[in-house]
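[worker-b] picked up task from shared queue
[worker-b] task type: protein-ligand structure
[worker-b] ligand name resolved to arginine; SMILES cross-checked against name lookup, match
[worker-b] sequence length check passed
[worker-b] input payload:
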Amino acid sequence: MNLNIQNETSRLRAVVLGTAVSNGPVPKLEEAYDPKSIEHIKAGTYPKESDMVLEMEAVAKVLHKYDVKVYRPEIIQDYNQIFSRDIALVIEDKFIKSNILPDREKEIKAIQHVIDEIDPDKVYKAPSEDIHFEGGDIMIHNDHIFIGTYKGDDYPDCIVARTNMKGVAYIESLFPNKTVKEFDLNKSMKDPKDNALHLDCCFQPVGTNKAIIHKEGFRNPRDYEYLVDFFGMDNLFHIDKNEMYHMNSNIFSIAEDVVISEKNFIRLNTWLRSLNITVEEVPYSEIAKQEGLLRCTTMPLIRD
Ligand SMILES: NC(=[NH2+])NCCC[C@H](N)C(=O)O
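[worker-b] inference finished, payload out:
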């Protein structure tokens, strides 16, 4: 397989889509690693496996409709394998295994059959354990790489901070010709409305020159201003706290003019259609309860 990813929106040809099959029982509070899951465990509304499986099949169906080759993880019994995005990432022709939260370490084994199709010289793994990064924090945007991080002193105790500055430096070392820009994100283990778990929870490019953004997701206002200067204010679609909580920035592009989005994102989907983007709507509100959405459940391998 010849990997090729240059940005978030070029026509998609091959992707890994996670699976909710054998997701395991409702986690205990101390087993959860994001505040939105915790909220639903406490409320007794944690998503049912059967509902999540149906939602993910709806995405698989759209991908097949567009002739995208879809890889799925092998099933690990009673293990959460929904959010494929975070376990590895592709930039250009390199496949980089993430140094992920220890709770999620087993997920990568389940896509070994995909890795076996890639030239081993193109498969990378960070050399030491203190380098942290997850795919949800990393976005290639042509000659730029955007990376979400957390610069707070409490980083070591913050399990919702998944990418550190060593992670940023490692990615930078692999792509000396790219401009790497990191963004310090707001984190909260208590309130999901204040938690930008990954960069894709508060920002994502769409189309050719547009992006979705949640200003309050950025800890340093200068980082937000960088993106305003980069894209231009008129090209940004701002989402509020509630829209971020429902994960509006986490749609998924099949092409510059085709996206998969959640069916309840009325304001966002209307904006996308006004740009002549085809919006393929799916139900994904059960998946959303685990603080991830469409970008999080997909890991692109090949785009045009
Ligand atoms: N790319 C993402 N935003 N992924 C979301 C992952 C959500 C998952 N509950 C976690 O905490 O790891």
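[worker-b] attaching auto-annotations
[worker-b] The two ends are 14 Å apart (CA to CA).
[worker-b] releasing lock
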